[in-house]
Design a protein that fits this description.
The complex is a heterodimer.
Chain A lengths: L5 H17 L18 E7 L4 E4 L4 E3 H4 L4 E7 L6 H15 L2 H5 L1 E7 L7 H9 L6 E4 L2 H10 L6 E3 L8 E3 L4 E4 L4 E6 L5 H12 L3
Parallel strand pairs in A: 4-5, 5-6
Antiparallel strand pairs in A: 1-10, 2-3, 2-6, 4-9, 7-8, 9-10
Helix pairs in contact in A: 3-7
Chain B lengths: L19 H22 L4 H18 L3 H7 L2 H21 L3 H8 L4 H8 L2 H14 L3 H8 L2 H23 L10 H11 L4 H9 L6 H4 L10 H15 L1 H21 L17
Helix pairs in contact in B: 1-2, 2-4, 3-4, 4-9, 4-13, 7-9, 8-9, 10-14, 11-13
The chains are: A alpha+beta, B mainly alpha.
Chain lengths: ~210, ~280
Amino acid sequence: MRPFTHAPRLAPLALLLLVGAAGCKPAEPKAVSLDGLTGPKVTPPIVKPDFLLNTTEGKPFNFRQETEGYATLLFFGYTHCPDVCPVHLANIAAALKTLNPDVGEQLKVVFVTTDPARDTPEVVRSWLDKFDKRFIGLVGTRESVSAVLQQMRLPPFAIDSTPGDTNYYVDHVAMVLAFTRDDLAHVVYPFGVKQADWANDLVILTRGS
Amino acid sequence: MQWWCSATGQPWTWAWQAYPGVWLFVGLLAYWYWRTVVRPAGSTRGRDLGWFAAGVLCIWVGLDWPVGALGAGYLATFHTVTYILLSLVAPPCLLLGIPPAAVRRGLDHRLAGPLIHGVARPLVALTIFNVILLLSHVPAIVDGAMSSQLGALAIDLGWFLGGVALWWPVLAPAPDICRMGRPMKMAYLFASTLVPIIPSAFLTFAEYPLYATYELAPRIFEKMTAQQDQQVAGLIMKLVGDLPIWFAFGVIFFRWAKASEITPPPDHPGSRTPIPSQV
């Protein structure tokens, strides 16, 4: 089995692309205080994408509309991921448990699978429930998820498998995009964010949501 | 191939892996025993050999796959198991396996002589052990060290040498090297359980995981979070780590009590009878 090493390496490239993507549309000047955030800032910020995918319950989910007015963490990954994805989600979930419940109510965590073949809605739901039942799971075809990534100028995901192979890795962007109530992502979180930092930043990100 | 267990960030696999550096270290210890103890004496008591072999076995288990590898980069619990084996279990076993004659030969050595006497001072030994213990549990030091094989080796060696220093005043093979009486030895052992409360409490009661090495490591057991792993590590460090010390305390106490029973009062003519053993 080939060790999973690509996702973290894509992070710097993705950051550059994100900066480029953010330049496509001017940011709306809504006042959001970002003082004290530990996550790396993106200048100019990234505009929240507009896409429609299905939830794990089979309902259509319009990302822009459903997350309006909430702080939103958007993460692309897959349930068979051996390292980055479970650690990211586990740390966000653990940090949320230590915070005031208001923070959780003002936050939406959205996970989009990059492995449509293995990640059925049931599989994604069951996996997310291990971390936090409030996490939203979105599934779509390979093409529709690729289109979402393309919309944000993020690197495409790559499935490294041969026909019939069910034990494979998926190369994908390893960062979490954090959108604030102004529908912009001023910060992104590459792999390696600790629970203490999540706890600090989630309070700031949800402020005023 | 890695020669010493360190954090790699790779997903854990239950497939066996070789760590030649660990074998070399264990082999060097065995060779040292053969050259310093067995060969000059011509023969060795089975009991001595058994104790020393048990110590070497503890070191091997603590450093090699899977315990050493799990502790180096995946679970704080196993990191603590390695600490206990290297600092609190292996050193007393090794010291019990070294006959007094071998240590007395070392006293004449230019470097080993002063070291043997210096570490026999309880305050010096306790300071060495506690400083190593505290430094080796500072998050920045752990995260910095465990990501490289040399750093991980330094932590492991520190624990082992700190453990030898801790046990030396109590179990120095030649009793005349350290003249602490039994009550003092018990007080010393009790004192040695105090400082470990600090890292143990931090591990057990911290609101968030302290070490990025274990917090960001690929999970091995889905149901055990990084926080729970750290809490178990903290509890093991205190509850299990203290067992060898309290065991030694108990042995010394009962020997002391027994010796007090058989030793006649000072005004008795037989009071000059020497106490058979000081341990």
